[in-house]
Specification:
84 residues; single chain; mainly alpha; globular
Length: 84
């Protein structure tokens, strides 16, 4: 396992959560560095997510055409560490 999978697993760890709480971090903005269309720390998008009390937000753009290769994001709640 590598890359984003490791990041998300660590993000849901109790230790990471405690560390973020101790530092007063309330929100994270995470994006793929190879996504040229993302606006880092976009205040409108982050503000929108906060105003909706969202656990997670995801910005998307239309594919150029049906053959364009794209990545995808999926969350499997059943496999989250620490889930009872």
């Amino acid at each position: 396992m590598s890359g984003w999978a490791v990041f998300f697993l660590l993000s849901f760890s109790v230790r990471a959560s405690q560390e973020l709480d101790a530092r007063g971090v309330e929100h994270l903005h995470v994006f793929s560095v190879d996504n040229a269309l993302v606006k880092p720390a976009d205040p409108k998008f982050i503000g929108f997510c906060i105003s909706r009390n969202a656990d997670c937000g995801n910005e998307v753009v239309w594919k150029r055409d049906a053959d364009e290769k794209v990545s995808f994001l999926r969350l499997s709640v059943e496999r989250m560490p620490g889930r009872d």
